[in-house]
Amino acid sequence: MKIKGKTWIFGDDIDTDAIIPGKYLRTTDLQVFADHVMEGIDPEFAAKVAKGDIIVAGRNFGCGSSREQAVLAIKYAGIGCVVAASFARIFFRNAINIGLPIIETGEEISCREGDTIEVDIEDGTIRVGDRKYTGTKMPDFLLEILMDGGLVAHRKKQSARDRFGRRSDAYSKSSILSNKDHLNLIIDLASPEESDSVLDIATGNGFLAFEFAEKVSRVIGCDMTEDMLDIAESIRKDRELDNVSFEVMDAESLRFEDGSFDIVSCRFAFHHFTNPKKVISEMVRVCRNGGKIVLVDGLSSEDPVKSEYHNRIEQIRDPSHVRLYSRSELIKMLQDAGLRITHAREWDADFYFDEWIAIADPGEEIAEQVRSMMINSIEDDKTGLNVRFKDDKMLFTYSTVILVAEKDG
């Protein structure tokens, strides 16, 4: 993980009350924390700091109370990283657990406020101009938690890896994932050129990657579940496609240079991401100016009550599920990332309950709980899924959206 940004300089013994004064601790609103970050030292700091900026501090940063709100305030203000000669131990622990990138140098960094600094969290190095500093490299287990976005996100990702690993074969046979009409529509809307290079993130068994491979010069599919990619590689060999390759990789930390691809796609995975804005940011970063972002996922209702009930069912069925979004929410996330929407096409398909529950294979007790919740939703369509019975079999309408957006140069 490399982070590059403008520096803000602070001294020794910056305590948590300076980072977020105690009078703001009676709320759980993260935006309030962000709006008052570092107020105890510089009341105007929150208004001046920009996303991706880096705090450079002296010794004992984050001393004082054990309040985790200090870390939350820094993270949600958009600070990309905190570099310090040393951290208070509780602050250090909270930063790892919450997913705030930090690096401990053991010495003060020589730089001025506003300088550009580049930090490599994985190897513990800091660069300011032509000067290089070597900080303390974190143990691998702590680094993994931090890279995953904090302890909760780390556990979610572990759950997803385990679950998708166990069910990789079932996903490869899914009627929705393998639907050729859906795949062809995505390709038509994306309008790839023969010379294009494509990155398909969270590729799973590679369904979309293989469709792109028929049209473009090069495709890379990445996924954090190795069992999924083993199946994709087997399919690649069977189809004798030599312009497709697969790599194990987290969508939140793509190991590619800026502007490496003409098209960056993601199909039926967005609802599993613990940090969807970070994923979009990475997709945009590795896409060239004038290139395209293709985002495809299932939809939840625009009605927040129906959406909440729908997502509750999904989370019980599959604990790795984070959230299915409404069409308007997905569009806003892309637009907030500076993208221009060129296509927004919905596509619906019938999904039988038995197939849908078998893919997740949650066990009979959970399956019956989900079945009851789905049946109870029929009256007044509480999920927005139009749950119904046909020939004594329960089914529902699985709504998806295909979004194509351009990255303007």
Please characterize this protein's 3D structure.
It is a single chain. The protein has 409 residues and is an alpha/beta fold. It folds into two domains: 2-147, Aconitase, domain 4 (Alpha-Beta Barrel), CATH 3.20.19.10; 155-407, Rossmann fold (3-Layer(aba) Sandwich). The protein contains 16 helices and 15 strands. Strands 8, 9, 10, 11, 12, 13, 14 and 15 form an eight-stranded mixed sheet that branches. Strand 2, helix 4 and strand 3 (81-84) form a beta-alpha-beta unit. It is globular, with a radius of gyration of 23 Å. 41% of the residues are buried.
Average pLDDT score: 90
CATH architecture of the largest domain: 3-Layer(aba) Sandwich
Which value, in Å, is the CA radius of gyration? 23 Å
Q: How many beta-strand elements? A: 15
State which percent range the strand residues make up: 15-25%
Overall body shape: globular
The CATH class of the largest domain is Alpha Beta
- Here the CATH topology of the largest domain equals Rossmann fold
Our count of domains comes out at: 2
Low-confidence stretches: none
Under CATH, the homologous superfamily of the largest domain reads Vaccinia Virus protein VP39
Helix count equals: 16
* Helix percentage: 25-40%
What structural category characterises the helix and strand content? alpha/beta
Through-space gap between termini: 25 Å
Characterize the main sheet. Answer: 8 strands, mixed
